[in-house]
Design goal:
homodimer; mainly alpha; 3 strands; disordered N terminus; DNA-binding; 2 domains; Arc Repressor Mutant, subunit A
DNA sequence: AATTTCCATCTTGTATACAAAAAATTTGAC
DNA sequence: GTCAAATTTTTTGTATACAAGATGGAAATT
């Protein structure tokens, strides 16, 4: 009988070099060290990471699949940062996916998860009060992760996490907007309230507004993009 | 100045061997030649395709990313067909994504696209009348592709196409259900009607019911799975 | 007899070597 | 001086060689 050995990713599992390089490169691209359009030279990277071209190529293929770089056959791989249009599209999809999570979660969520959401929100509040932006991002992510999980759909959860990670650096810029943090917190609370009432449509609408890029956020996003492209 | 050379995938572009192998393997897995849990031996595949291990490994990594196989470090790669639960989850996400497309399309769709949808439906009808299942699948896919496009969100469109392709073989089994084809056609027409009226919520609900696995479809899906796993 | 340890073998992961295609540079003609 | 063709150089794609971890079985110990 086939064992239920799915999702048994032991934390301490030593990964191969290609995986580590992929993670490292992902970080370098997302943090802006490699600008949009920059070519990623295999041999340079191999020297930089002190490995052969093989694991570097493997890492680049991974990044190509996740959309961070574009691989043009026999030409090389190039950093492919989303432009303004694509970014807005991605945020729209994120908003809709989270809205789906909220709607599904409204009837599936556990009491435990509800209190977890409250707890995450409380820690978010503390972080805001302490001007601890890193802490805020961490708890914010936890809040959203709980929501994804409570959709009761593991596949949806994974897809949401994937897109959340992809948008992480841009979200960071977005939240710089003055006064966004308290507003964001209020939105979190409205979402939890709707979930407690079991009102899926209200929860969905609330989180759609929470995630979507609109009004003020739009200008900040554009400004940050211009800055990143310089 | 950076050129607008995005999405210029010329059809005649000669692809590298690894790409061809990835496609071939994908087909073999989806058509069931390689059953769930089967190990894909690098050297065997290299011999089979008469290439070295390098392009085979590249292809396997690609399949690993798209979820068709699972790569366990230093153990090998194994075919990873979704189980019943995961499959239901994927169909649920597909239904929700298409519902989002419908809701967005309701206010963004062009007259041209509406007539294209009518045309695709007409050809679907013809295929049903002619018992031409292959033709039906083709036109059905076109119908859905138009809808994705009319969401006005290129990123969403791509994600939908990705999942649609992934579910293709299972959808095939699902539509075997007796009397499903006429019902499916009626649903298509209801969707177009809602879109014409610009009623996003109705269109979303219609397509959600169209795609979701429920009632009869559930049993057929389970039966087909049992058959595929033998 | 059962279990554990060690060794042989096999498989994956990485390094290097080679081939082919694209980019760059040089050279030649006009 | 400019443009174009050809050669050189660089870089990607593939093959092979090597290293390290995993599997399986045999031998030794309890």
């Amino acid at each position: 009988m086939r064992a239920e050995n799915r999702c048994v990713y032991v934390s301490g599992m030593d990964r191969k070099r290609a995986d580590l390089i992929a993670d490292e490169l992902e970080g370098l691209i997302l943090e802006g060290t490699y600008k949009d359009g920059a070519r990623l030279d295999e041999v340079q990277l191999a020297e930089r990471f002190e490995v052969s071209r093989t694991p570097v190529r493997e890492a680049l293929q991974r990044l190509s699949q996740s959309g961070l770089v574009e691989q043009i056959p026999r030409r090389g791989v190039f950093v492919r940062q989303p432009g303004p249009v694509e970014l807005l599209e991605m945020f729209e999809v994120m908003a809709e996916l989270e809205a789906v999570c909220a709607r599904l979660a409204a009837s599936r969520i556990t009491d435990q998860a509800l209190s977890d959401l409250h707890a995450a929100n409380a820690r978010c509040d503390e972080a805001v009060a302490a001007q601890d932006t890193d802490g805020y991002y961490l708890e914010n992510e936890r809040f959203h992760a709980i929501l994804y999980r409570q959709s009761g759909n593991g596949f949806l959860e994974q897809e949401c996490l994937r897109l959340y990670r992809r948008l992480q650096p841009f979200r960071r810029m977005q939240l710089r907007a003055r006064g966004r943090l308290p507003q964001s917190m209020a939105e979190h609370k409205a979402i939890v309230t709707a979930l407690e009432k079991g009102d899926g449509e209200v929860a969905a609408a609330a989180i759609r507004g929470h995630v979507a890029v609109q009004g003020e956020k739009f200008h900040h996003l554009m400004a940050s993009l211009k800055h990143a492209a310089e």
